[in-house]
Amino acid sequence: MNYNKLPVSHLPDASISKESWRVFGIMSEFVTATERLSAIQPAVSIFGSARTKPDHPYYRTAEEIARQLSDAGFSVISGGGPGIMEAANKGAYYGTSPSVGLNIQLPHEQHSNPYQNVSHTFQHFFSRKVMFVKFASAYVVMPGGFGTLDELMEALTLVQTGKTRKIPIILVGSHFWQGMVDWFKSALLTEGMIAEEDMDLVQVIDEPEAVVAAIFKHYETRGFEPSDAEREMQLNL
């Protein structure tokens, strides 16, 4: 096949203009979210399945973790929707620190839960994910599906590559997560896809009290505020 003779697609001027203005919309989304969330630190982001029902043990565990974090002085950030997101917002809402929901506009899913002191809605997943990392002093990851795994891997990649500061990344529920962690060791580490120290980026913890204790232990020799070097690093997320 002669690739030089393939037809060239040309976007009409109206489409190019529309794409250009869309970039400004994305910039605006980053600016407004940063301004709204800059006062919530220190904060912990909690992730998990939107399908988890209020009577499920995962829901109750997430709610308890969020309540303890809120009472300990952490704002709690979730995706603002149902399931684990609602549990996280609910626990923080009835605690002493702000409950923050970073909502997303979707065609057929996601309604905002009512337990949000600070609510911000995004059109784009990628700008929303940046905010989850940018303002988090820790990640708490409950059992979840593809979206939860996406957010977990995003955080691991950013910390591993030094694009963001090292924060605790805590997987809650050893019976759910241990198989994945074992696969990290048996496949990724054994095949040389990750370094041995990369295994230290995640912790698997079951009890809410231990989750809170692990976060405080990480910061016991330093404050929760990012250093000047870390702030500079996060500008390049």
| SSE topology string | HEHEHEEHEHEHEHH
From the alpha carbons, calculate the radius of gyration and give it in angstroms. 20 Å
* Gross CATH architecture of the domain at 41-173 and 203-222: 3-Layer(aba) Sandwich
Helix/strand-derived category reads alpha/beta
Global outline: globular
CATH topology (level 3) name of the domain at 41-173 and 203-222 = Rossmann fold
Q: Gist?
A:
The chain is of the alpha/beta class. The protein has 8 helices and 7 strands. The protein has a domain of 153 residues: Rossmann fold (3-Layer(aba) Sandwich), CATH 3.40.50.
Description:
The protein is an alpha/beta fold and 237 residues long. It has a domain of 153 residues: 3-Layer(aba) Sandwich (Rossmann fold). Strands 4-3-2-1-5-6-7 form a seven-stranded parallel beta sheet, with helices on both faces. Strand 2, helix 3 and strand 3 form a beta-alpha-beta unit. Helix 2 packs parallel to helix 3 and helix 2 crosses helix 7. It is globular. The mean pLDDT is 89.
